[in-house]
Design brief:
about 300 residues, alpha+beta, Rossmann fold, Methionyl-tRNA Fmet Formyltransferase, Chain A, domain 2, 2 domains, 9 helices, about 25% helix, elongated
């Protein structure tokens, strides 16, 4: 089975590794986005998928847009089928038609829930307790094609979007491989998506801003959904303070929304319902630290109110 693999971020690496190590698979090329500036010095850096493909000696195509010329290059590769995991660009019809058995997308939601660029992030922000992954036949619409297979996973108490995506990227890799094989050998039974459609647009920095007037559970959901990217944050002294996981504390109800206090070994912040407990924070220009160490480093006479 000859495969074209399209993907870009780190979440797309485990499925690539799984396919590359299967004896029945030949990856004819890897399609990924072009090198991007990384870090404060904006050093042009290959995508995680490009780096993994390079380590394995796989041919790499780099493009942020699939145009007619690239579609012809894809046709000439001779792939039986294409696999897509978070490539980061739309695939036009000309490219879809360039591969005999089509393009199979691994999407990290239970379609038609959370169609779009940030399915896990949006699911966690909404308070979903079950997440999952789907494989489907790519078509011109946004995550609208018929589904080939699904798997589910329960959200754990200490999960963030980052941990869920990392886990799903590994556990759903065999699902992608099985779906590719089924499509090529003709045993696949694609089923139209059924149920209510929800959308998951890419998160902006503002999506990570905590609204302390929200109930504690909503605050906790927002923080876990925005971690690690774009990052959950609040304002203090006109500067951003990044937040890691927060823990609901229904036993503490005497703090106004946004008021932060240190009580014993707990850093507590009031919300629109009861308090939440901070675990780790990252002040502007500093490294992440335990919330208690941060709180003890501030003046004990200074009232702390997050904005």
């Amino acid at each position: 089975m000859k495969i074209l693999y399209a993907g870009t971020p780190s979440v797309a690496v485990p499925p690539l590794v799984h396919l590359a190590e299967r004896p029945d698979v030949e990856i004819v090329a890897v399609l990924t986005r072009t090198d991007a500036p990384v870090g404060r010095k904006k050093v042009l850096t290959p995508s995680p998928v490009a780096e993994e493909a390079g380590r394995r000696g796989l041919p790499v195509l780099k493009a942020n847009r699939v145009d007619a010329e690239l579609a012809e290059r894809i046709r000439d590769l001779g792939a039986d089928v294409a696999a897509v995991v978070a490539y980061g660009a739309l695939v036009p019809q000309a490219a879809l038609d360039a591969v005999p058995h089509g393009w199979i997308n691994l999407h990290f939601s239970l379609l038609p829930q959370w169609r779009g660029a940030a399915p896990v992030q949006r699911a966690l922000m909404a308070g979903d307790t079950v997440v999952g992954a789907s494989t489907f036949l790519l078509e011109a619409g946004l995550d609208t094609g018929p589904v080939l297979g699904t798997m589910t996973d329960e959200v754990r108490p200490d999960d963030t979007a980052g941990t869920v995506l990392e886990r799903l990227s590994r556990t759903a890799a065999p699902l992608l491989a099985d779906s590719l094989r089924a499509v090529v050998d003709g045993s696949a039974r694609p089923a139209p998506q059924q149920g209510d459609v929800t959308h998951a647009p890419k998160l902006t920095a503002e999506d990570g801003r905590v609204r302390w007037s929200d109930p504690a559970v909503a605050v906790a959901h927002r923080v876990r959904g925005a971690t690690p990217e774009p990052g959950a944050w609040t304002r203090l002294d006109e500067r951003r303070l990044k937040l890691d996981l927060v823990l609901p504390r229904p036993d503490v109800r005497d703090l106004a929304p946004g008021r932060c206090v240190l009580r014993g070994d707990a850093v507590l912040v009031g919300t629109g319902s009861y308090a939440v407990q901070l675990t780790r924070v990252q002040p502007a220009g500093k490294k992440t630290m335990e919330a208690t160490a941060w709180a003890r480093g501030r003046s004990t006479e200074e009232e702390v109110v997050f904005q």
